# Entry
Amino acid sequence: MTITYHDFISSVRFVLVRPSHPGNIGGAARAMRTMGFIHLALVAPQRFPDPQANVLAAGADMLLNDAAVEGELVDALGGVTFTLGLSARRRAVRLPELTPREAAIQALSVVSRGERVALLFGNERSGLENEELARCHVMVRIPSVDDFSSLNLAQAVQIMAYELRLAMLGDNAAPLARDHPLVDVVQMEHFYEHLGKTLDDIDFHKGRSPETMMLRLRKLFQRIALDERELRILHGILADAQRMAKLAKKPGSQKTGSQ
Ligand code: SAH
# Structure
């Protein structure tokens, strides 16, 4: 499905969870506005509305006026089917971790299916709580340095807004109008299942841990955004490998030359 610029903008929501500084809310609104996004939701902001927010919004006041202000996170997620949680730190919650670029490509692919996405940003001091991250489908980490990993909230919003805009403009592997739709998370899971089964069938692991190998292979495939035709080709290769493995296991199947 081809989506328009308008579809994309109206399907992406930026959610600031418990922001403490109104200046950061304004800064986030400005960051979104520069990249064309308009839907801002605030969950339990400490001070809002506040003149400081308007000062930092630098003209993007409309986003502040239209912002949905909610008491609970779940109320900010109505209609949303895919939630991305931004976190500087790796957390106890085990979620697939994406870079901003990978996340933007996934978000675009989800929106192309007619769904809505939300990006969750945490409190300036404490970040997203585990319970908040538990509502997310994936975690996004901006690859900052380990010993100073936390960006200013509005700057984290800027990076995501920029990556989403790049993805939307077709700067990388996910232009808006592709010949074939991008593969979604569910299709990738089926592929990993098929891949795992095939590796067993061809006796690839030879006693090594299949889990580690599968994690490495997942990482490899997560670096690229496959489309549905490419995925069909890969499934085809796996199916052939499985067929050959089955033939090879049949009694009397050894080639004469190898005896
Ligand atoms: N100490 C907090 C940092 C809060 S900064 C923590 O460890 O999470 C405020 C918010 O900005 C974060 O909750 C997150 O949503 C976003 N953010 C800041 N730096 C980030 C990074 N390196 N990667 C992803 N999100 C980041």
Confidence is low (pLDDT under 50) at residues 171-176.
